[in-house]
């Protein structure tokens, strides 16, 4: 029986261009994508967060329920609207315009949190750290699950334009980095957060600071670089023709967490590298159609 994976943060409706006149309404938001990715791979997945008590919030809640994600701690907020994002696509790469600010997800409180247990996992992203009260709720959840004997995964998934300043973003995100057991960065995120001008320097800096954490940098079609307890390697990726990269990082994390939660011995090199290989495959498959959630792979 895999250990429960709690995913905390925003559930977002992505509006993705479909021709000149129309947008596709797609369920999204990095934490929601990860929660679905975990569930599709056979993991025990549960979502923590707020959406608006509105048609889009109900759509998100129903979508997660249909995907076998536990939504007992997904609250419909009557005071605030569900996060909605217009996704721009150019040659398969994306840009984001956030249409609701602040959205319901930013109003998660400490009293909304579940009781955590030993062996469970918690995954968070930085959007949950932008404003209060969700910042305190998120950092409190990370500390609480560690205190209970669980593990924390953190993917910054930076959206710099939503923060008051880059300095504030770095300061708060690095608090979450310190609380995590597993960290997943893009190359750009890691160089920004470490104030380095190359991936090599940034990776050396973060791994020297946190040698006991599993640190992963995703490299797109080239796979993923990881470090754990002195061992460093690149796990090769699989190159597919990308149509939409919107959910690739989230699919990678879903594959990673599903694997970690199912293997108590995940810190062993052979086990870990097999899990990262699975995560790479999940990330690659997610780029092959439009929409972050629609292309998340199922258990083979």
Explain this structure:
This protein is an alpha/beta fold and 300 residues long. It has one domain (4-10, 29-80, 105-285): 3-Layer(aba) Sandwich (UDP-N-acetylmuramoyl-L-alanine:D-glutamate ligase), CATH 3.40.1190. It has helices spanning 30-40, 55-66, 134-147, 166-179, 187-194, 199-209, 248-262, 269-285; strands spanning 4-8, 12-18, 22-28, 44-52, 70-77, 84-90, 93-98, 121-125, 151-155, 182-186, 214-218, 224-228, 231-235. The chain has a nine-stranded mixed beta sheet, sandwiched between helices. It has a four-stranded mixed beta sheet with strand order 3-2-6-7. The longest helix has 17 residues, at 269-285. 48% of the residues are buried.
Task: Kindly summarize this structure in a few lines.
The protein is built from eight helices and 13 strands.
Features:
300 residues, globular, 4-stranded mixed beta sheet, 34% helix, alpha/beta, UDP-N-acetylmuramoyl-L-alanine:D-glutamate ligase
Reconstruct the topology from this structure.
Blueprint: E1 4-8, E2 12-18, E3 22-28, H1 30-40, E4 44-52, H2 55-66, E5 70-77, E6 84-90, E7 93-98, E8 121-125, H3 134-147, E9 151-155, H4 166-179, E10 182-186, H5 187-194, H6 199-209, E11 214-218, E12 224-228, E13 231-235, H7 248-262, H8 269-285
Parallel strand pairs: 1-4, 1-8, 2-6, 4-5, 8-9, 9-10, 10-11
Antiparallel strand pairs: 2-3, 6-7, 11-12, 12-13
